[in-house]
Design brief:
This protein has a 4-stranded parallel β-sheet with strand order 3-2-4-5. 27% of the residues are buried. It is α/β, with parallel strands linked by helices. Helix content is 18%, strand content 24%.
Length: 225
C-alpha cells in the first residue's frame, strides 16, 4: 500500500475467490456507474486493463468488494484521465497480466497526484507493475511446487498500525476460526504457482505481523518462520 505519508509496503492477501460470468459483471459495471462516474464519495477506484471486459483476477476484486458491501468505480488506462482520481481515498489494482497501458506519463501523473494528495494505492499480482512504472520499486517473480502454502492466517500484529484494527487475533493452539483471519489461500492445491512481487521499494516502511502457514500433508516447511 502506498500513501502520501511516506511509502508504506504491505504484503496484501491474495483474493482467491470464485469467478462469476461476464454477464453479471456487466450488470455490476452499469449498476456502479463504471468508468463514467465522476462522483466518488466513499467509493473505491478499481483499476483494470479493460474496464469493459474484466479478466479473472480483476473479477476476484469486484466479487470481493461486492460481497463485503463496498461501492466501486471501474477505470482503465484509457478512461482514468477522465476521472477525478484524487477524489478516491482508495485505488485498487489487481490484474492477470502486465498492464502496459498504464506506462504513460498522463496516466501516471494522475495516479501520482492522487497518492501525493492522500489517496492509498493497493496493488496485487501484476498490479505491482504500476508501482514499477511510478518509480517506487522493481518487480520480481517467485514460484513454488507442488504444495507449499495452502493457506496463510493472520496471528497478531508486530507493528502498531490502524490497518490491523478490528481484525481478530489468532490464539494457539486452536485453529483460526474466523474468516477474516485468513490472509490468502490457493484456488487449487498440488499445483505450481508463480507470483509477481514488488521488491527494492524506495523509501519503504514495513508493517510487520505474525502469520501461520497452513499446508496439510507437507512436512518440510522451515520451522523458523
Amino acid at each position: 500500500m502506498f500513501n502520501s505519508k511516506g511509502i508504506v509496503f504491505l504484503v496484501i492477501f491474495l483474493l482467491l475467490f470464485a469467478s462469476t460470468s461476464f454477464a453479471s459483471l456487466t450488470d455490476r459495471f452499469v449498476a456502479h456507474g463504471g468508468a463514467s462516474t465522476t462522483s466518488s464519495t466513499g467509493k473505491i477506484l478499481v483499476l483494470t486493463r479493460n474496464a469493459s471486459s474484466l479478466d479473472s483476477e480483476e473479477t476476484k476484486v469486484t466479487d470481493f468488494l461486492m460481497q463485503n458491501g463496498y461501492q466501486y468505480d471501474l477505470a482503465d488506462s484509457s478512461t482514468i484521465t477522465g476521472l477525478s482520481v484524487s477524489s478516491y481515498k482508495v485505488i485498487y489494482f489487481r490484474t492477470g497480466s502486465e498492464p502496459t497501458g498504464y506506462n504513460s506519463t498522463i496516466v501516471l501523473n494522475a495516479i501520482q497526484s492522487a497518492i501525493e494528495g492522500g489517496s492509498s494505492l493497493i496493488i496485487e499480482y501484476y498490479g505491482n507493475y504500476l508501482a514499477k512504472y511510478l518509480g517506487y520499486g522493481s518487480v520480481t517473480s517467485s514460484s513454488w511446487c507442488p504444495v507449499v502454502n495452502n493457506k496463510t492466517a493472520y496471528v497478531k500484529s508486530i507493528s502498531s498500525h490502524e490497518i490491523f484494527n478490528g481484525i481478530s487475533t489468532w490464539d494457539p493452539p486452536t485453529k483460526p476460526d474466523k474468516e477474516e483471519q485468513y490472509m490468502w489461500s490457493l484456488d487449487k492445491t498440488g499445483c505450481s504457482y508463480t507470483c509477481r512481487n514488488l521488491s527494492s521499494i524506495t523509501g519503504e516502511q514495513k508493517i510487520e505481523y505474525y502469520q501461520l502457514y497452513i499446508t496439510y500433508g507437507w512436512y518440510d516447511l522451515y520451522r523458523n518462520n
